[in-house]
Amino acid sequence: MTTEGALARLIRSSADRTAAARTEVCDLCAAPVADEHAHLYDTGQEEVRCVCGPCSVLFAEAAAGDGHYRLVPRRRVRLPEVDTAALGVPVGLVFFVPRADGTVTAEGPSPAGAMRWEVDAAAWQELSGRCPQLATVEPEVEALLVNTVHGLDHHWIVPVDDCYRMVAVVRREWRGLSGGGRIWPAVEQFFEDLTERP
């Protein structure tokens, strides 16, 4: 065995592990998943999990798995302006998630991840009365995503995985105390890239 051969094998082995670490896998069966893949919402851990096509079929019905995992829908609907002031959340970049127990949470991105507030459920119901599409938001797995920062007017019903992607954009681009110059162009680009899906 030559030193050069051992070094070459070590480099190849390290490269293989790095490539394998980048490959996303199904969180249920560990099969590789495509770049565009389904997600499950783990109601116990309150986390989104990657899932392959065959495993996603197992959770197509809402009652599958005793409700522990919920398949995240793909629907995106752009809404006209929704006056969220009555919900009492003092930030312009936020998403509202109705929960199965009737409560509603608001989450906003920060450099440390998502911040969470409880929203008055009666205020959410009143807002849903003024904007009937909000009554169609599927608890736990869909959200009202809002961006009114810098005079923008984005109001969407989206799957919760889109919300967590937006939080990841903020964490990735945030610099210093105020966010720096890269964060708002990146957030605006995120919203420009959203497309409606049935």
From TrEMBL:
Pfam families: DUF5947 (PF19372). InterPro entries: DUF5947. It comes from the Bacteria. This is Uncharacterized protein. It comes from Streptomyces cahuitamycinicus.
